[in-house]
Design brief:
This protein is mainly alpha-helical. The protein is 72% helix and 0% strand. It contains six helices and no strands. The chain has helices at 8-18, 23-38, 40-50, 61-76, 82-96, 101-121. The N and C termini lie far apart (30 Å).
Length: 125
């Protein structure tokens, strides 16, 4: 998707045409993809602010998209507790990212969560 500029929903459809899948998982994945697509600009601004010493364009596609999913679940949905979203993102990073991805994802998402709750506590959003 990142390299071919495909629409996320089209990429999901291609996946479903190629691989066996569970409909509940595909439905939730579609929900996440639509949400990330809709709020991508804001989500990417969270990544840019929280990833010290890393320019967002230097973050691998895998790590960046795991961060996007984690941020969307943490801050834009009500069904997933933030700590669960972070744990799920770390597991994805360990499975699909580099050797250091899990630690990197954890650090960025933890910082975003802390910054978000600080702003919420003082009434900003």
């Amino acid at each position: 998707m990142e390299t071919n500029a495909d629409d996320p929903e089209l990429a999901l459809l291609k996946y479903c045409e190629t691989f066996p899948y569970n409909q509940d998982i595909i439905d939730y994945t579609g929900f996440l993809l639509a949400g990330v697509k809709k709020d991508k600009e804001k989500i990417d601004s969270y990544i840019a602010k929280a990833s010290e010493h890393w320019k967002p364009e230097r973050i691998t596609f895998v790590d960046k998209n795991i961060l996007r999913l984690g941020i969307y679940e943490m801050l834009f949905t009500e069904d997933v507790p933030p700590k669960v979203a972070i744990d799920e993102a770390i597991e994805l990073a360990k499975k699909y990212g580099s050797e250091d991805s899990g630690e990197f994802i954890n650090g960025v998402l933890d910082r975003i969560l802390k910054d978000h709750y600080k702003k919420e506590a003082i009434g900003e959003q």
